[in-house]
Amino acid sequence: MKILIAASEFAPFAQTGDFAAHVEKLAAATAAGNETTVILPLYRCIREGRIPGLKRGKLRLNIDLGANKLPAEVWEASGPGGVRLLFIGRDEFFDRTGLYGMDGRDYQDNAARFIFFSKAVVELARRESPDVVHALGWQAALVPVFARDQRLAIPTVLSPVSLEYQGHFWSHDFALTNLPGEWFANVLEFYGSMNFLKAGIACSNAVVLPGALNLATMQSPELGCGLENVLRQNAAKLEGIAPGLDLPATASVSAKEKNAAREALFKSSGKTANAVFVAHAGSTGEDGLGLLCEALSHLPMGEVLVALVGAAPESQRKALEIAVRRRAGGMVHIPEPTAAEQERLFQAADFVIVPGGLEPGCVFFRLALRHGLVPVVEQCAGLHELVRDFDPVTGEGNGLVYYRRSAVALIDVILRAAQLPAETKSLLVERNRALDFSWTSTAKALDRLYSRLATGSSRLAA
After folding, report:
1. pLDDT score of 151
2. Whole-angstrom Cα distance, residue 294 to residue 283?
3. C-alpha–C-alpha distance, residues 431 and 372, integer Å
4. 9, 352, 363, 406: most buried by Cβ count inside 10 Å?
């Protein structure tokens, strides 16, 4: 399959943060078995970065930008992992020190810069004839818009990556799009201004959010960043595909190593415990941490041990201090664990518990699963992506799920975990250790999406 990816950053050649690494890893993952091309602006840092094989191609593009028709050069190079790189060159827009601005201020012509870039991507797509065009970030979010306006028979995918950055610009910049006037009111307008991301969501064939957990949470006011209504209106095209995580390989823990880690954390209490739970304060939230502290006051001392890592919310610190004192060595709190301390925690623990809804991303949680910890979690939308409740009848599942946010329900599931038969726990440990959180898994999910869209596009064209 021929995949064309449009983005404004690519590690290590042009980057301002994690976005560049995300684009590079996604491109490299999709290149396995596909012909992947990434289109980027030709920034000054790319020209000066001595990219192997970077050269000016013969192709020239003429891009309409408002009343002007501006030429663009197309440069090319070979990227890592067999990825082909194309660069849109126009010094007026991209031969600058910063990618988006300088000295903490955005360039005033960023709308013009990325309208120009998006139009150039669509023109290249017309010539390249890929099976799918995948736009990443607000900077490329108008690619689906221009593709639809020009009735390009190529499906488009948009990955917002972050809803926090949307590409807000003055309404007078709309003239640079050369779109019919009704497109502003019907597609790009957002509270009087122009919003690239909103328009891209409306016009793309599919919108990829980072994991099934995000499909519901990003349609809520808490995490929708103002676009929750737009996402709800386009719910049928939302796809939850989690980005890969480069998690280290982990070794099985022997009984001797587990006992040593327990004694290091809990002293003599570690010798008699039925179950050791680890929780991350940043993932549990205020409600969850309060419920955990309440539940612990009703659980048998010495049989259930808990290690909490990460800084606790200010509102729960007092309750947490009281819980630690009451459990007299059966509960520890490590606000900022070192790598060695975190590894010891994973060695000592049997279960990872989240007494609140799972947070999108769940890096600590996924790392705990990779270490073989059995998850104990509250039911939430998208949970099936990571955890399925163990069914003793069918033998299916990889964790323990409870369905009501209350101290009583939490106590019940903790006791259920502590009484889990050894053979069942061993089975769940191996299932969680075998879970695949890599970019290879992400690429497989994207391939399925691309194939579905390409097939649908072929039927439509026929």
Report:
1. 95
2. 17
3. 8
4. 352
- Dmax of the chain from CA atoms? 78
Same fold, 2-244+440-461 and 255-436: yes
Q: Give the chain's count of helices (H) and strands (E).
A: 17, 20
Helix H or strand E encompassing 418:
helix 407-418
**d(C-alpha 127, C-alpha 411), whole Å:** 62
Q: How confident is the model at residue 456 (pLDDT cuts 50, 70, 90)?
A: confident
On whether the CB atoms of residues 210 and 243 are closer than 8 A, the answer is yes
Per the omega criterion (within 30 degrees of 0), is the bond before 12 cis? yes
Count the neighbouring beta carbons within 10 Å of the beta carbon of residue 341. Answer: 14
CATH no., domain 2-244+440-461: 3.40.50.2000
Beta-sheet strands, E only, within 316-372: 331-334, 351-354
Evaluate if residue 282 carries a pLDDT over 80: no
High-pLDDT (> 90) share of the chain, %: 73
Question: Do residues 88 and 107 make contact, with C-beta atoms less than 8 angstroms apart?
Answer: no
Burial call 283-299: b when 16+ CB within 10 Å, e when fewer: bbbeebbbbbbbbbeeb
Domain spans in the chain, listed from the N-terminal domain onward: 2-244+440-461, 255-436
CB atoms near residue 71 (< 10 Å): 10
Average pLDDT over residues 401-423: 94
Closest CA to 288 of 210, 362, 356: 356
* The pairing of beta strand 193-195 with beta strand 189-190: antiparallel
Q: Does domain 255-436 have CATH number 3.40.50.20?
A: no
* Percentage of the residues of the chain whose pLDDT score is greater than 70: 97
Give the C-alpha separation, 241 to 212, whole Å: 6
User: What contacts 72, CB < 8 A, 6 or more positions away?
Assistant: 60, 61, 62, 63, 88, 89, 90, 116, 120
Closest CA to 223 of 25, 106, 382: 382
How far is Cα 257 from Cα 421, in angstroms, rounded to an integer?
Answer: 21
Judge residue 54's burial from the number of C-beta atoms within 10 Å of its C-beta, 0-12 exposed, 13-18 middle, 19 or more buried: middle
* Interval 293-348: pLDDT, tens: 899 888 888 788 999 998 888 888 888 888 888 887 889 999 999 989 999 999 99
Average pLDDT for 100-117: 96
> Would the pLDDT of 440 be above 80?
yes
Q: How far apart are CA 443 and CA 31, in angstroms?
A: 9
Q: Are 237 and 206 in contact (CB under 8 A)?
A: yes
pTM metric for this prediction = 0.90
